[in-house]
Amino acid sequence: MGMSIDDFGGGPSAAAGVLVVTTNDIPGRRVTEVIGEVFGLTVRSRNLGSQIGSGIKSMFGGELRGLTKTLAESRAQAVERLMEQARARGANAVLAMRYEVSTADFGTEVCAYGTAVRLADADS
């Protein structure tokens, strides 16, 4: 059973309406307004079945595919929430996007954050 490309990677689609980049600027585009920090957050509880499977797998080595898929889904959800926040504040882009991931006894927290901005149209 193979994993699809969406199971272990991703990012927002071009049709999302908010451009999300990890850079501090976008060549050829001018920032007309800095709106401020935005973030998207998700917390996933630990799954006992995947914990047991991961514990066994970690003893012998190899990729923890179930956890890889869960983390990819969490990151995608955090970015979607980041984009919703940006859109709600009138932004059309998020610059300097980063992820922060932390774990606790209850699960894993994934936060995507960056600076919401308004960009001038590409031809202006």
Automatic annotation (TrEMBL):
Domain of life the protein comes from: Bacteria
Alphabetized Pfam families for the sequence: YbjQ_1
Record SUPFAM superfamilies: YbjQ-like
Coiled-coil regions listed in the entry: none
Record-stated family: Belongs to the UPF0145 family.
Designated name of the protein: UPF0145 protein SXIM_28870
Organism of origin: Streptomyces xiamenensis
Native organism taxonomy: Bacteria, Bacillati, Actinomycetota, Actinomycetes, Kitasatosporales
